[in-house]
Amino acid sequence: MGLSFWHLLIVILVVVLVFGTKRLPNVMEDLAKGIKSFKKGLKDEDETKTLAQDKKDRE
């Protein structure tokens, strides 16, 4: 019971009405930057945990 074509169409229509066609590219760009930053933060956290575990294993 996922999203059908009509659900997606209504969501897109509401987004366009709320943000307008001129602001929509800026909103999408900001969203993409936020997602990239979030993924980078998760990756950095994993690397930090791995380094800490390696250091602990050496001791």
Automatic annotation (TrEMBL):
UniProt KW Protein transport keyword: yes
The lineage's top-level taxon is Bacteria
Name one cellular component (GO) term: TAT protein transport complex
Classify the protein's membrane topology as the record does: Single-pass membrane protein
Give GO terms: molecular function aspect only: protein transmembrane transporter activity
What keywords does the record list, in alphabetical order? Cell membrane, Membrane, Protein transport, Translocation, Transmembrane, Transmembrane helix, Transport
The Gene Ontology biological process annotation of the record reads: protein transport by the Tat complex
Localization of this protein: Cell membrane
- Its main subcellular localisation, reduced to a broad class, is membrane
Task: Indicate the quaternary assembly.
Answer: Forms a complex with TatC.
Q: Which NCBIfam families match?
A: PRK01470.1, tatAE
Q: What protein family is recorded?
A: Belongs to the TatA/E family.
The role this protein plays is: Part of the twin-arginine translocation (Tat) system that transports large folded proteins containing a characteristic twin-arginine motif in their signal peptide across membranes. TatA could form the protein-conducting channel of the Tat system.
Its name, as the record gives it, is Sec-independent protein translocase protein TatA
Per the UniProt record, the source organism is: Micavibrio aeruginosavorus
Instruction: Name the gene for this chain.
Output: tatA
